[in-house]
Amino acid sequence: MQLIDKLSILADAAKYDVSCASSGAPQRSSKGKAGVGSTGGMGICHSFTPDGRCVSLLKILLTNFCLYDCQYCVNRRSSDVPRARFTPEEVVMLTLDLYRRNCISGLFLSSGIIRSADYTMEQLVQVARLLREEHEFRGYIHLKTIPDADPALIEQAGRYADRLSVNIELPSDASLIRLAPEKTVGGIQRTMGAIRYQQQAVEGEARAPKFAPAGQSTQMIVGVDDSDDHSILRKSQTLYRQFRLKRVYYSAFSPIPHSPSTVPLAAPPLLREHRLYQADFLMRGYGFRAEELLDKPGNLALDIDPKLAWALEHREQFPVDVNRAEPALIARVPGIGVLTAQRIEQLRKQRKIRYDDLRRLRCALDKANPFIVTADYRPRQDSSESLRLRQQQAERPVQQMALW
Ligand code: SF4
Questions:
Q1: What are the start and end residues of each CATH 3.20.20.70 domain in the chain?
Q2: Does the beta carbon of 112 lie inside 6 Å of ligand 1?
C-alpha cells in the first residue's frame, strides 16, 4: 500500500478521538465543505503547549487494526473498514516531512491495539524515541497511552512526549463492561495512576528529566450510553482530583457505519457536548463543584448556559456588591469572568466601583445587571427577570466560550 493511501485511512480513523483541542471547534465552511483553514477535515488537529501557544499537529493512528471490539468504535475488530498500518519509521518520516514544510508543529499519535498492550505501546514509544533521539525533533508530541501497558513503557513515553492521554471512554463502569468488554476500568485507571506517579516523581526536582510536561488528558464519549450529565460531570471531577488531569474532552457519539445494535443510531445534540464543556470550564477555572452545577440526576439545560442556570437557581446569593464581595463570588456573576473579577478587586482598592467602570472593564452587563450592586446601581427585584434572561439567552446563537 502506498504511503498516501495509508495516510488517508489512518488520518480519517483518528478523527473520532477528540482529546486534542480543535476537534470540538465548529466547521467554518459555509458550504459544508472543508476549505482553507477548516478544522472540519482530518489529519491535522490543534493543541496548546504549556506556555499557551496553539500548535498544529499531525493527527494519525499508527494502525487501525485492533484486537478489541469496542462497540462505539469504527476501528473495532468486527468493523468492515479498510485497514492499514504504518511502521514507526514511516510515521517519523511523515512527521519530519510535514514539519519541514511548516504544515505542522508536532504529532498526535494513537493506535488500535495489535498483538498486546505492551507491543502497541512499544511501537508508539519507538516513534517518539526516533523523533527525539535520532532526529532531534523538538516539536510537540502527544502520545495516546494504551491501558495496562507496562509502567516502564509509560515512563519512557513520558520522557519523550509532551502530553500523554488515556481514554476513560465512558463515565460508568457498567457501560464500559457492556460496550468495551476487553477494557477494564481498573486497567484504565491504573495507567492514569502510573502517569500521575511519574509526574509526582519529577515534581519539585529541578534536575529531574521532564515527564509529559503538558500533563495528561482523557476523553469521554457522550450519548452512547444512558449516562446523564450529572454522572459525567461527577466522573470528570473525580478524575481531575485523583489524577490531576489537565483536561477531560467530551466527544458526542457519532453513529458509525454498520454500527451494532448496542449503540444508538442517532447522535446526541451537539449542544449537549457544548454545555458539558462549559460546565467543565466552570469546574476548572471558577471553582464550581459538579454537584453545584447539577445537584440531581439529569442533564444540563440546553437552552441556557450552566453559569446563568446556577445563578438563577441561587438568587439568594445575589445581588453581589462588587465593592465588597470576594473575587471568587464576583466571578460567579454571569457576564463576569475570573480576570475581570481580579481587575475589579484591583480597582476597588483605589476607589468605589461605579456602573460605568464595569462597562469599561468589558463585563457583559446585559447578563450581569440583575446580579450586581455598584456604588450607583442596584437591580430592581423583579421575578420576571429570570424569565427574561432565559428567553434572551435562548434566542441568542450559542456563544463559544474560551474552552480550550
Ligand atoms: S481499543 Fe477499542 S476504542 Fe481503541 S481502537 Fe480498538 S476498538 Fe477502537
A1: 3-25+37-286
A2: yes
For the Cβ of 106 lying below 6 angstroms from any atom of ligand 1, the answer is: no
Q: Is the CB of 117 under 6 A from ligand 1?
A: no
Task: Indicate if ligand 1 lies below 6 Å from the C-beta of 73.
Answer: yes
Q: Which residues pair with 57 in a beta bridge?
A: 45, 106
**Which atom of ligand 1 lies nearest, measured to the CA of 73?**
8
Burial pattern 380-404, b for ≥16 Cβ within 10 A else e, equals: eeeeebeeebbeebeeeeeeeeebb
CA-based radius of gyration for the chain: 23
Q: What pTM does this model have? A: 0.86
Centroid of ligand 1 to alpha carbon of 175 (angstroms): 15
If you measure from the C-alpha of residue 333 to the centroid of ligand 1, how many angstroms do you get, rounded to a whole number?
Answer: 42
State the distance from the centre of ligand 1 to the C-alpha of 64, rounded, in angstroms.
8
Tens of pLDDT, residue by residue, the chain (404 residues): 888 889 889 988 887 775 555 443 444 444 545 444 444 445 667 666 666 667 788 999 999 999 999 999 999 999 999 999 999 999 999 999 999 998 898 999 999 999 999 999 999 999 999 999 999 999 999 999 999 999 999 999 999 999 999 999 999 999 999 999 999 999 999 999 999 999 998 887 777 778 999 999 999 999 999 999 999 999 999 999 999 999 999 999 988 877 788 899 889 999 999 999 999 999 999 999 999 999 999 999 999 999 999 999 999 999 999 999 999 999 999 999 999 999 999 999 999 999 999 999 999 999 999 999 999 999 976 656 666 666 666 656 555 443 33
Which residue type is seen at 57? L
335 lines ligand 1 (CB under 6 A): no
In this structure, the residue with its CA closest to atom 2 of ligand 1 is 70
- C-alpha distance from residue 194 to each of 128, 169, 314 (Å): 19, 18, 40
Yes or no: say if 251 and 305 are a contact pair by the CB < 8 Å rule.
no
Angle, CA of 203, 209 and 210, to the nearest 5°: 65
Fold of 3-25+37-286: TIM Barrel (3.20.20)
Cell representation of residue 192: 492514569
Q: What does the alpha-carbon distance between residue 215 and residue 145 come to, in Å, rounded to a whole number? A: 12
| Ligand 1 and 163: CB distance under 6 A | no
Cα(252)–Cα(241) distance, rounded to whole angstroms?
A: 24
Mutate to test the pocket of ligand 1, among 64, 76, 146 (most ligand atoms within 8 A of CB): 76
